[in-house]
Hints:
Blueprint (H helix, E strand, L loop, with lengths): L4 H12 L56 H4 L11 H15 L10
Amino acid sequence: MKCGTTWLKALMFATANRHRYKLSDHPLLRTGPQSTFPFIDTHIFLDYPATNFDNLPVPRLFATHFAHGLLPTSITSTCKFVYVCRDPKDALVSKWHFLSKLRSKGLPPSSV
């Protein structure tokens, strides 16, 4: 779904690391925001470097679909969270407009 999380990741990474990188060598100029945030959902139960939070650079930024209550207490007691939630109807309309732009002009219009 098109919910603004990519934009939010870029904004958070740029803000949290504003003194770490020069504008000319900023990671967001070379890669997308998804590569700057480890996505821990698929690797949480494996011995994967992203799940060992000590290996992540400070400030530690990561993305997950897990509910706040499912995260370890060591994270939830000391970390700050940004929670992105969007009205499902709004997400559906946004996705419909996005897919309509991708649709071939020769095909009949989509209907909901």
